[in-house]
Amino acid sequence: MKKTFALLLIAFALNSPVSLAQNKKTKAAKTVVKKPFVWEGANLYFLMTDRFFDGNPTKQTYFNRTKSTAKLRGFEGGNLRGIIEKLDEGYFDKLGVNAIWFTPIVEQIHDGVDEGTGLTYGFHGYWTRDWTALDPNFGTKKDLAELVTKAHAKGIRIVLDGVINHTGPVTEIDTVWPSDWVRTSPQCDYKTYQNTTACTLVKNLPDVLTESNANVELPSFLVEKWKKEGRYESEMASLDAFFKRTGYPRAPKYYIIKWLTDYILEFGIDGYRGDTVKHVDEAVWADFKTQCDYAFAMWKKKHPKKVLDNNPFYTIAEVYNYGISAGQDFDFGDKKVNYFKHGFNNMINFEFKWNAAQMSYEGLFSKYSDKLNGELKGYSVLNYISSHDDSKPFDGARTKNFEAGTKLLLTPGVSQIYYGDETGRSLEIEGTEGDATLRSFMNWNEVKSNPETQKILAHWQKIGLFRKNHPAVGAGIHEQLSAQPYVFSRTFTKGKYSDQVVIGLELKPGKKDILVGKIFKNGTKVKDAYSGKTAVVTDGKVIFDTDFDLVLIEKL
User: Fold this and answer.
1) What's the predicted TM-score (pTM) here?
2) Domain residues for 522?
């Protein structure tokens, strides 16, 4: 009898109004869907490893690199430890960055070359001597492991820069690779597919024979190097295992693919930016992606507690002069190639800077939304306003820092912040030649002491963080809600997750009525992420009184 009475009490308690309400709250709490990381809307920070920040307290000279160089053509001191230090400080968090790409960190040629602009060392990372080692000027593998771990702890993905097309230049101490590995002529004229792929980019930049499937032996200098470093046996055993597993011939391209994908297996990096992609047969990149996917899957299997999500490995193609208007194909003149179907999720969009300069906000945003949700659906593009090798950036004189940030960070697609875009770092350095003017050291002193620089950074931080918090900004569907004042929405859905925002630009400071349409229902409490002020939706609109000319509206 007592047991029956106790059961009745329990049943009554579970069905009481209070308990039912609690159950509903519990169910509601369980239905909250976690915000996913969406590559298509990522806010990516691109930096030159040697030019960002020096995290080493003591200076050292490596490989006897002591020659005087032309201005900004030598090692300046930036390194992986510097990136780690800025990660620890929260610099990237405040900027809303959720992916970092940095220039290659593999061991560079030991000497320098005169490119007609004065002596240059391989500070930029694109002159490889040994794909299997890190250059001590950039850091150590221990540093890289720490960087990846700390970035992942903050939800930031790491993208390395992969070079398959060429080795480093030949110098007195950096010998040319064997003739069954590279060609040293002819030089590319870029008029046909053949004269873009089977040639050297410039004089004295040996071109890897990526079209070859012939078995080749390792260069003797590399064998001697590995033996001297005490790792010849382990490297050879690893190569044997790779070729046995894949069945690939021991051709140059497959050695390099193996060496590059080892960084995925060892460190769990999240993506690769492919360098000089159009200068390599597209089938090579398809093989590269296959091995990247395998390595990423193996890393996840071995490190289940470190896996961030189920996103696949991400690849970005640098196909020089590709633009979003071309859709999926790149035209060589005599041949069209679809790199999206040959191993790439994304292509760098060289067209963005022109679109940003020539089009209205609405023209720019609607064009990119239509393209990315139409013929490019399932893929994306990487937009930028400046880079390490584009001599005609959107704003070379840095007179449009606020406009640049607004356009880059609010345009659909992946946004690429080139280090210093967010701080107005000068791109016009007196005494430099060629692309060196784009590669000055990060202007940290101005960030600390210049009020105008701090205002620019604050602007980029607010929009960048809003972008990071809302996948709809970069990966969503764009819709204009009002022409005057200019207001638009972005909506994004993935599985059970949905995200909606409303943004107003070119507004008048002071009181402003913002139409929100059907994005936010009447009675919804919202926040302007730019000013920090809140409001309630009434009659399909909200009123904000701020000193700024834009609003970034999100649901609270």
Assistant:
1) 0.94
2) 477-555
